[in-house]
Fold this sequence. Notes:
By secondary structure, this protein is an alpha+beta fold.
Amino acid sequence: MLKWLEPLKRLSLRERVMVIAGGLFLFILLIYTTAIEPMIDRMQRLDRLAAGKQSAIQELAAIREEYVGVHAQAIQIDRAIDEVSGTFSLLAFLEEVATDVHIKSQIVAMRPQAALPSSEYRENSVEVKIEKVAIPSVVALLRAMHTASAVLRFKRFHLRPRFDDPAYLDVSFLVSTYERV
């Protein structure tokens, strides 16, 4: 019959139990090290990867929400540009606002800047310098510019107190508006 069982038959019961228990232990150890442990390691690695992917998905969702908000703002700005495109003059607007705020006489310079070429828009900029102006007049000027019908963008804005009279300021800024090309 089976030759490998004959030496086992010659052993005492206690020795047979020990040999069978040792063999079973080695068999279980072999199964654990070759099949179960690698499977557990792989599951742990996949769990870590899944957690990383979940955080990436959450970050991507946040970026998407930010993009939707920025896209809505861009559409709103495009509409505002289209509404006044061709009918809005930045220089005329600045003179009108200065007259309304009663600071036209304090304007030292209003220099148009060269229009910067773009694929979709033309940027028209004006550099303005105002001297000896009170803070409430500056606030009124900014409020009037903020409520303008056109899209205005301040690129530079400097306020400096006057040395001869700190109650007054020297103001210089570069403001731009956009129109479709």
